[in-house]
Amino acid sequence: MTKEQAQEKISKLLKLSESPNQNEAFAALAKAQEIALKFGLEMKKLKAEVLEKTIQSHYKNFPKWYRLLLSVIAQHFRCREMTVQGYKPCTEFSVRGSKSTQVKVDEIIFIGMPSDVDIATQCLQYSVNSMNKLWSDWYEGYSKGTNTAVKRTKEWKNYVSKVKRNYREGFGMGLNDVLTQNEEQYGLVVVIPSEVEDYCSEMHSDVRILKARQSNGELISQAYRKGYKDGSQTKPETMHTMIGG
User: Fold this and answer.
1) What's the distance, CA 138 to chain centroid?
2) N or C terminus of the chain: which is more exposed, having fewer CB within 10 Å?
3) For 184-200, what is each residue's pLDDT tens digit?
4) Which candidate, 172, 53, 169, places its Cα nearest to that of 108?
5) Any residues with CB less than 8 A from the CB of 231 and at least 6 apart, and which?
6) C-beta of residue 108 within 8 angstroms of C-beta of residue 55
């Protein structure tokens, strides 16, 4: 498979990730990973330049669920991920009450071979979109019957924030497990290219590498289990029917 053919097939699979059928959506993501890893092993011969790409900037610390999801995607698509702190003009960020011309921001970046970074970035976006949709669908039923007045209270909003965090963390761990199973099933070995490791050591030796871990906050098991289930629902038999063998 050529570089162009691999990228075209991956793009088609990622479009299938928009399917309302969540089994098909995650099957497409898993198959995209399989091709990306095989293609990546071939890419080592091309000696491509290492790419550093900013995924998102934020003037506050990134939530742990997002860092978890980013770490999961990176480690399964041959990339490194890290946070970099810096300063940006306030015009780029709306900071209430700030009189400063600059604001301290965190940036999350992917580092890897160009094709790996491109695929990882797309998969991250599709994963976030799918997770948010599934959360909304589940929460609608979860909160059904709760009094409207209760929903307006600070206590309820704080509780929902914990529920949502637990769901998202469960989703990230479920996605991690299903991608791991996919690698084992197809005999795929995920190895960060030496060029990427060398680049990180030389250019970002003092930068914090993200780790896939959960927060230490209160665990609401129902939300976590539902998120985990939604993140790990890929079915191998569905995967093969989607790609035509």
Assistant:
1) 20
2) C
3) 887 877 888 888 888 88
4) 53
5) 26, 131, 170, 171, 172, 173, 174, 175, 176, 177, 178
6) yes
Residue whose token pair is 């009094």: 147
Contacts 24+ apart (CB under 8 A), 140-148: 142/223
pTM of the model: 0.72
Sign of the four-CA dihedral 200, 116, 53, 71:
negative
4 pLDDT higher than 90? no
Say if CB 41 and CB 181 are below 8 A apart. Answer: no
CA distances from 51 to 143, 171, 180 (A): 44, 28, 25
Q: Note the pLDDT tens digit of each residue in 62-96.
A: 788 888 888 999 988 889 988 777 776 765 555 55
Q: Which of 32, 123, 113 is nearest to 73 (CA)?
A: 123
Per DSSP, helices labelled H in 100-216 are 114-142, 148-151, 154-185, 194-203
User: What would the pLDDT profile of 30-72 be if each residue is shown by its tens digit?
Assistant: 777 777 777 664 444 434 578 888 887 665 677 888 888 889 9
Mean pLDDT check: name the lowest of 97-106, 119-128, 155-164. 97-106
For residue 233, which phi and psi values (nearest 5 degrees)? -95, 10
